[in-house]
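User: Here's a chain of 350 residues. Predict its fold as tokens.
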Amino acid sequence: MKFVDSCKVKVVAGSGGNGAVAFRREKFVPFGGPAGGDGGHGGHVVFLTDPGLSTLLDLTYAHTLKAKPGENGGGADCYGRGGPDLICRVPVGTQVFDDASGELLFDLNAGGVSTIIARGGRGGRGNIHFATPFDRAPRRSEPGEPGEEKGLRLELKVMADVGLLGFPNVGKSTFIRSISRARPKVADYPFTTLIPHLGVVSAGEDSHFVVADIPGLIPGAAEGAGLGLRFLKHVERTRALLHLITISDGEEESRSPLKDFDAITKELAKFDAELATRPTIVAMTKADLPFVRDAYKAAKAKFKRRGIDLRLISAATGEGMKEIVAALAQMVKEGKPATFQEAKPKRKRR
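Assistant: Prediction complete.
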């Protein structure tokens, strides 16, 4: 399925039905009085968060989401039927913005919750409500109110406890494949991963957390280089970060594990200053390669001078993997309340 994390859509709630002007016309009831019923309420446009969805693809092609209007009132005191709500399923983590002003309207970060995005119009009153001692046969009624109409921009930010960071081709996808059932593409070239992948990691009988494989970042990501803005937003909800670094055989002199770490940290700070201070574990990958293991000692000393404990891991051989999973589980446990929660649907009555 194609991954879509941003789209624009127009929502139009249903209009209320018109109130009716009618009078009782029955045998042996010469002055029956008014009998026009009220119009029905228009349908709401409702977003229901579905934990089973991971993309906004369906809404990308639905340029307008329109709920049905309420029925008009009828004679003999008949009220119009209310328009049914239009329920649209969206992924957990969807943010709803006003497209014109950019204002955040809703942050849908809980599963199984329905939210009224646009309210349907109220139905108009029939002439039975306008009878008075001075006017017992009113010939007026109210029209139905129009439903709300909005232009929206939807942004999806993945819901994960741990975000994987690093330059392209440092082994993020291989790492998440080794600790979960997520199966992102793995290949020996940069930008193999083009969309975030989520994996559930078990760290014991009652301990598990969600890891997000974020596509590789490069210098200038905070300004949009390499689709950086699109990638960086997916780490905003994480409680901890795992920064992966490594070296390649014959790597250019301008690159080093410490320089790579500083470059990504700088991009995080540019995008959101709080991200740069989030609990982070730094690990050197591909320990199964001799030249990586040889470079680890010098790199560890440089990071130690920064007060950072550089770990050495290998997803291929499993070296250091259990320890780093346990450390991440502890960081998640000590972090903020869970980013994802199940909740019973709540609907406000009209």
